[in-house]
């Protein structure tokens, strides 16, 4: 008897046992059909609310001028986190190419097994130097850095005091820890002090805030926060994703801008915005904390190492900023040009002197329609609505880049004026 026939003879009696019965298959199909109905109903409700987020397709590299599928010619991009224009900087791109050739596409490993190369440690050292902190640890994203910090640092005898409008990654990270959780009103120092008094019996306390709140472009009252933390014996943490590289005289961030670098104990930030725009996040702070994160932080322990080309690009971006603050210093005048011209045109711009310039519209459908019409005028912006921002506070978030010219900014303002008149 051939091997094939022998296998068929042995397996044939089992086929009826292994094959799902018709009733089991029907239940499975029914469950999937029910799930589809629920999901489609949820999707339709998003469409009806005017909050559907379509993804436009860019067919060029990131920069102030891009090509967009379905649009003719060059489009002005005013909604990237590419604050310093380094995403396509020739030296940054070349550094990524060099790292790819020398170190390969990836490590196929987490850091502690066989995923740490000298270029990873080199970038961590440069980031620690840039922020003037003792040490640094890299993550796949700042979302991971926020997810991996709090459960390692804080236990059931500790407390975390968080601004109510902190980024979703901070909120999710805090949910993972066992510390007592207290939420204070947005940038309300009086409420923060009440929460500090309420938690005085805790072993360690950590005040947690975004340095810059990304939806409104407002800067945390860091001096007041540090004063209260000092008074009540708490530590201070800031998320600097929308500040690193361009806020402060040397671009070090919110803590440098407000003169509080020596009173902020832990900083999380990203490589995916001003520092080259590829991917990655990190924590800088006391060396014992960084050492403990390497031992216990789950996103670090269970995620692949950052790919060498990403590390190479980010390293060159940091080197450029360590060598000169010229790019960072160019941001202020460009930001104020846009804010002033838009205000003079009758628009309400939220936040203060930050490159995030939210054009407040209120209605979600209006924000979406205006953004679509802006694209027809050669300006790429996106409407933001619930659940990204609270209901009734829809806006078009404009972001100024050091790579934008005065002519680019004026064109954007003119497009807003034309679109505003239409609607």
From TrEMBL:
Protein name: 2-amino-3-ketobutyrate coenzyme A ligase, mitochondrial
Reaction it catalyzes: glycine + acetyl-CoA = (2S)-2-amino-3-oxobutanoate + CoA
GO biological process: L-threonine catabolic process
Domain Aminotransferase class I/classII large residue range list: 75-416
Keywords: Acyltransferase, Pyridoxal phosphate, Transferase, Transit peptide
Keyword Transit peptide: yes
EC annotation from Swiss-Prot or TrEMBL: 2.3.1.29
Molecular function in Gene Ontology: glycine C-acetyltransferase activity; pyridoxal phosphate binding
Family matches, as CDD domains: KBL_like (cd06454)
InterPro entries: 2am3keto_CoA_ligase, Aminotrans_II_pyridoxalP_BS, Aminotransferase_I/II_large, AON_synthase_class-II, PyrdxlP-dep_Trfase, PyrdxlP-dep_Trfase_major, PyrdxlP-dep_Trfase_small
Source superkingdom: Eukaryota
Cofactor(s) of this protein: pyridoxal 5'-phosphate
Family designation: Belongs to the class-II pyridoxal-phosphate-dependent aminotransferase family.
Any single Gene Ontology cellular-component annotation: mitochondrion
Gene3D superfamilies assigned: Aspartate Aminotransferase, domain 1, Type I PLP-dependent aspartate aminotransferase-like (Major domain)
A Pfam family annotated for this UniProt entry: Aminotran_1_2
Record keyword Acyltransferase present: yes
């Amino acid at each position: 008897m051939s091997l094939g026939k022998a296998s068929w003879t042995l397996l044939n009696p089992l086929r009826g046992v292994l094959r799902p019965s018709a009733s089991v298959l029907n239940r499975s199909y029914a469950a999937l059909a029910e799930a589809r109905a629920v999901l489609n109903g949820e999707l339709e409700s998003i469409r009806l609310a005017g909050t559907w987020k379509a993804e436009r397709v860019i067919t060029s590299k990131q920069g102030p001028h891009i090509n967009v599928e379905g649009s003719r010619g060059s489009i002005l991009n005013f909604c990237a986190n590419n604050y310093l224009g380094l995403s396509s900087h020739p030296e940054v791109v070349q550094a990524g190419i060099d790292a790819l050739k020398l170190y390969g596409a990836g490590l196929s490993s987490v850091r502690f097994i066989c995923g740490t190369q000298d270029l990873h440690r080199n970038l961590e050292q440069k980031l620690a130097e840039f922020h003037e902190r003792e040490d640094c640890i890299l993550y796949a994203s700042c979302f991971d850095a926020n997810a991996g910090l709090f459960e390692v640092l804080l236990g059931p005898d500790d407390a975390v005091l968080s601004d109510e409008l902190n980024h979703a990654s901070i909120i999710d990270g805090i949910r993972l820890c066992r510390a007592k959780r207290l939420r204070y009103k947005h940038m309300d120092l009086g409420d923060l002090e009440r929460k500090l008094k309420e938690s005085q019996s805790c072993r360690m306390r950590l005040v947690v805030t975004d340095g810059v709140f990304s939806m409104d472009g407002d800067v945390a009252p860091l001096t007041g926060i540090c004063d209260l933390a000092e008074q009540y014996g708490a530590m201070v943490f800031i998320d600097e994703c929308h500040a690193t590289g361009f806020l402060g005289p040397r671009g070090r961030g919110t803590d440098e801008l407000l003169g509080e670098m020596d009173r902020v104990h832990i900083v999380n930030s990203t490589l995916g915005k001003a520092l080259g725009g590829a991917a990655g996040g990190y924590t800088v702070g006391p060396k014992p904390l960084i050492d403990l994160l390497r031992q216990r932080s789950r996103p670090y322990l269970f995620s692949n190492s950052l790919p060498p080309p990403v590390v190479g690009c980010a390293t060159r971006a940091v080197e450029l900023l360590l060598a000169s603050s010229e790019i960072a210093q160019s941001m202020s005048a460009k930001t104020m040009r846009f804010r002033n011209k838009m205000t003079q045109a009758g628009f309400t711009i939220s936040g203060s002197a930050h490159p995030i310039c939210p054009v407040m519209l209120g209605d979600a459908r209006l924000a979406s329609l205006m953004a679509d019409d802006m694209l027809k005028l050669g300006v790429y912006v996106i409407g933001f609505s619930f659940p990204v921002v609270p209901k009734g506070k829809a806006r078009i978030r404009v972001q100024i880049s050091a790579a934008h010219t005065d002519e680019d900014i004026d064109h954007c303002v003119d497009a807003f004026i034309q679109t505003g008149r239409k609607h």
